[in-house]
Design a protein that fits this description.
Shape: globular
Largest sheet: 8 strands, mixed
Order of helices and strands: HHEEHEEEEEEHEHE
Number of domains: 1
Number of strands: 10
């Protein structure tokens, strides 16, 4: 079982155009694998962590469409000496200490503006709605033609202190939200 999650995560890292199923659970399995792989292609500054061995927190704000899949994928994993953890946060204002924040399509994309200011430039925000990037989010999953694609906001990318691998950026569509 664990091996299949790693295979899915590896496939997601290599193929941004991974098929999305008509069944939401399968689509969210793919998206969970992407989120896990993002942690290997994004470098957070040391100042984003309380200590050298503090967890790297992947936070789901509001509704959790992954139904535990993301937590299963990251269980026991670490990146750069930081153990990965998944937290569910009911309200964006309580996402303090989150390194990667995911907002599903069931949440208001304007919630990205309600995330705590502290460390905003050190937070990877990922959403699903068309408005998410215009609201200040950094990355967005876009399902087109039955495939999960990734869009990255140029303006949010310029504001971030994160170092995002060119390998990941080459797989994404760089967009100018609001234009």
């Amino acid at each position: 079982m664990r091996r299949s999650w790693f295979g899915l995560a590896a496939a997601a890292a290599l193929v941004v155009c991974a098929p999305a199923s008509a069944q939401p659970l399968e689509e969210y399995d793919v998206k969970a694998a992407f989120l896990y792989r993002f942690t290997h292609f994004v470098e957070w500054p040391d100042e984003a962590f309380a200590s050298a061995d503090s967890p790297l927190s992947l936070c789901i704000v509001g509704h959790d469409p992954f139904e535990g899949t993301l937590a299963q994928i990251v269980a026991g994993e670490s990146v750069g000496g930081h153990p990965l953890e998944v937290r569910q946060v009911a309200d964006p204002s309580r996402a303090e200490g989150c390194h990667l924040v995911f907002l599903s399509r069931w949440e208001d994309p304007a919630w990205v503006a309600r995330l705590p200011d502290g460390g905003a430039a050190r937070r990877l925000t990922v959403g699903e709605t068309g408005e998410f990037l215009a609201e200040g989010g950094l990355m967005r999953f876009d399902v087109r033609g039955g495939r999960v694609r990734l869009e990255v906001s140029r303006s949010a990318l310029e504001r971030t202190e994160l170092r995002i691998s060119s390998k990941l950026l080459n797989l994404a569509d760089l967009v100018d939200p609001g234009s």
